[in-house]
Amino acid sequence: MRLLRAATDVLARAADLLWPPACAACDALGEEPFCAACADTLLPTPSGCPACGAPADEALLPALRPRRCPACRAQAPPYASARAPYLHGGALAEAIHRLKYEGRLELARPLGVLFAGCEPPRADAVAPLPLHASRLRERGYDQAFLLAAQAAHRFALPLLPLLRRVRPTRQQVGLDRKRRAHNLTGAFRALPRASGLRVCLIDDVLTTGATAAEGARALLAAGAAGVEVRTLARAP
Ligand SMILES: [Zn+2]
Ligand SMILES: [Zn+2]
User: Fold this and answer.
1) How far does residue 111's CA lie from ligand 1's centre (Å)?
2) Which ligand is nearest to the CA of 75?
3) Residue 202, class by beta-carbon neighbours within 10 Å (0-12 exposed, 13-18 middle, 19+ buried)?
4) 56 CA to centre of ligand 2 in angstroms
5) Which ligand places an atom closest to the C-alpha of 77?
6) Distance (Å, rounded) from C-alpha 44 to C-alpha 19?
7) pTM listed for this prediction
8) Do the Cβ atoms of 147 and 232 come closer than 8 Å?
């Protein structure tokens, strides 16, 4: 055990040499995940809908009785809750963009620290919302998997890749809510192993929640006992 810990320490120090602590958005050395100037641009997610987490208009929020947002009242999402520590914007949006599109996979580790600011899920395992194999080949890595590994560490839960993306989908960007849902129907399949488990799904950003909802539906269809969603950021 002691040898293992010593080896882990050596690896951690080697990682510090390769990637010294630096801001995930602007590379300023010394602080992570963000330098003071970039940290100033982070907007903690205000309280809101107990189901999907959509920020509520504070003026309309009845103080002690949180109510579901109109969308969740019209149709309850298949997941029990979706939470993110920050709104998507500023330095966090820049850092996520670098992680996803600029090959900066080493940023998953410092960004994973942000999950500590999230309400911990009631779950038995953490699973990423995976990319389709064709996009994984293009990109070479799956940022949701890297973030899920960090979240599993933060939440002290096992990391289980329980979902497969069984068909490629169009980029969700530019599609309205209805088209997003249609674009994703049947996009995921869950492993039989999900049966009986409470699963915490991890992704980088929650936009309309359509992707997370489709992943949750696949898990529930495979017999999962419940699904919660955690992301680094959510659309304001
Ligand atoms: Zn910075
Ligand atoms: Zn809601």
Assistant:
1) 13
2) 2
3) buried
4) 9
5) 2
6) 27
7) 0.86
8) yes
